[in-house]
Design goal:
This protein has 335 residues and is of the alpha/beta class. The chain has helices spanning 4-23, 84-102, 125-149, 163-174, 178-182, 196-201, 320-334, and strands at 56-60, 107-109, 156-161, 184-190, 217-219, 223-224, 261-265, 270-274, 280-283, 286-289. It is globular, with a radius of gyration of 20 Å. Mean pLDDT is 90; it is low at 1-21.
């Protein structure tokens, strides 16, 4: 008979084989080492910093790893976050979100994770799901460490964009306890989608926001300049809210109500707010922006996934000042 130690080894080996045979069913693919979230190396900031604020943000960044080949000619399907240069790919995104959304008001926790690279989205469904789950497990592990060692009972926001949002949705479905969920003020899962089937299946976790100060809810939106610019990566949006006037109705919000977006200006060495940038209305749960130049974020290399008029690359900051005010509103209601 197997003793407990050998049983554990057998279970661990079986798990590793499942992972290896899943994503590595594709030739020449390496899975990077699993991160240890007790090590500050795998967080945006040193974990020893004393927290002095009453509310946290747990942030998960979008896809920054494009893929390609490594130095040995192996396909890159995951971000190898043991490498400083790979962590640096995510740093500017994390730093922006800390400065704009957390600023002086909230503690900011952002783990590095073995996110899937952009090219994985083009693989067959089975391989994609197997690779995706490895990234999901990292975020669940990071959140568990955050809850047990860093949160100290404080209320918190979940905040993400694109792949980061998809990670948070999976966290809500599979990696959060009842008590932890009740202490979540809201989850801003920007630039992704949730199916009606998932909303029905996880109705106690995936609760779409209906107005400006709902609690324990999901805030989700995707922006376009024209409905014809829907991304095949996000082909349908079963929920959506207008972050300018905080309604799920199709009411038009004039640009005067757009409080602005914030971007770093190197010449001024500061973040500069651009107010009244666009009018906005909801159509089929997508945000239609009437005054944004689609070339402002268009990238030719990604035109198949995000055609001209799709504002996916702007979604995380296009409504930043409206979101900042909204976060404060939800904090007041939570208290």
């Amino acid at each position: 008979m197997l003793n407990k130690k050998n049983k554990f080894k057998l279970i661990l080996l079986s798990s590793l084989i499942l992972i290896f045979c899943g994503c590595n069913s594709q030739p020449n693919v390496n899975i990077p080492p699993k991160p240890d979230y007790s090590n500050s190396e795998f967080w945006f900031e040193n974990l020893n910093i004393e927290s002095d604020k009453e509310v946290d943000i747990f942030y998960v960044y979008p896809t920054v790893t494009l893929g390609g080949k490594d130095d040995n000619g192996n396909d890159i399907y995951f971000a190898d976050i043991t490498k400083p240069e790979v962590r640096n790919e995510a740093y500017s995104n994390q730093n922006y979100n800390k400065n704009v959304y957390a600023a002086d008001e909230y503690n900011f926790y952002a783990p590095f994770y073995r996110q899937i690279s952009f090219n994985v989205y083009g693989l067959d469904e089975k391989t994609f799901k197997e690779c995706f789950q490895i990234a999901v497990q990292d975020v669940i592990d990071a959140f568990k460490y955050y809850m047990e060692n860093l949160n100290n009972g404080r209320p918190y926001f979940l905040l993400g964009h694109s792949q980061g949002s998809s990670m948070l949705i999976e966290l809500l479905k599979h990696g959060i306890s009842d008590d932890e969920f009740q202490n979540m003020i809201a989850a801003y899962t920007i630039g992704y989608s949730i199916s009606e089937a998932d909303i029905n299946k996880y109705s106690n976790r995936l609760i779409p926001a209906q107005d400006s100060c709902d609690l324990n809810c999901i805030i989700l939106f995707n922006s376009l300049t024209t409905i014809d610019a829907i991304s095949p990566t996000i082909p349908i949006s079963d929920i959506g809210i207008n972050p300018v006037i905080w309604t799920t109705e199709t009411t038009f919000a004039p640009r005067e109500l757009h409080l602005g977006y914030s971007l770093y200006d190197k010449t001024q060495n500061q973040y500069v707010i651009t107010p009244n940038a666009t009018g906005v209305y909801l159509k089929d749960n997508y945000l239609i922006c009437t005054d944004i130049d689609p070339y402002q974020c268009y990238q030719e290399d990604f035109k198949e996934s995000f055609p001209l008029g799709n504002l996916h690359f702007m979604d995380s900051w296009l409504y930043s000042e409206n979101l900042r005010l909204n976060m404060a509103c939800r904090v007041r209601f939570f208290r």
